[in-house]
Amino acid sequence: MNTGDINVGSFIRHNGELVQILEYQHRTPGNLRAFYQAKMRNVKTGKLAEYRFRSGEEVEVVRVEQKTLQYLYKDGSSMVLMDNETYEQIYVDEILFGDSAGFLKENINVEVAFDGDVPVFAEPPRTMVLRITYTEPGIKGDTATRTLKAATLETGAQVSVPLFCNIDELIKVDTKTGEYMERVKEK
What is the CATH classification number for the domain harbouring 75? Predict the structure, then answer.
């Protein structure tokens, strides 16, 4: 395949390493030849790199199989996941989840991509509803300002929340950025 067949989210083999394309833009600067600017993440090390591909350059696209697995628990530096069809337990390195690993709660479904039998990419749901286990008490009427305070969630992760959020309340958190989104009413 060539550079025109790649898009964001694709997996390619670049310099012998498996990388995922995070950003990909076609550029045509003035009188110069067109090229593709790519921002890539090395699957094994997690390091980011940028590279310019010539237009029409040959690249090796790697086909990965994506599965939905259930998160069970953390075991050292690995996350133990279960295949819902075969009930097989799979150990996935915590590094593949990145910063969003702190928001994982038992029994939620996560997306994992495999190159053969090796997990190469893992992603939790975009948002999670979690309970606040500790934060400084809020003061009634503290809704006008955009001042934030630290809060610890049931998973142990820390986020900044508005002053009106209290202990034992449910909040929605963006797992990619780690930011508070809104309060959620209990059902």
Answer: 2.40.50.140
Last residue of a domain, one of 12, 41, 61: 61
Is 106's pLDDT higher than 80? yes
Q: What ranges make up the beta strands (E) of the chain?
A: 11-14, 17-27, 35-42, 48-54, 60-61, 65-75, 78-83, 89-93, 109-115, 118-123, 127-135, 148-153, 158-162, 170-174, 179-184
For the chain, the domain total comes to 3
Q: What is the pTM of this model?
A: 0.73
Q: Are residues 32 and 15 part of one domain?
A: yes
Contact 21, 35 (CB under 8 A): no
Across 139-143, average pLDDT? 63
Report, as an integer, the average pLDDT of 79-108.
90
167 within 8 A of 160, measured Cβ to Cβ: no
Domain boundary among 19, 39, 61: 61
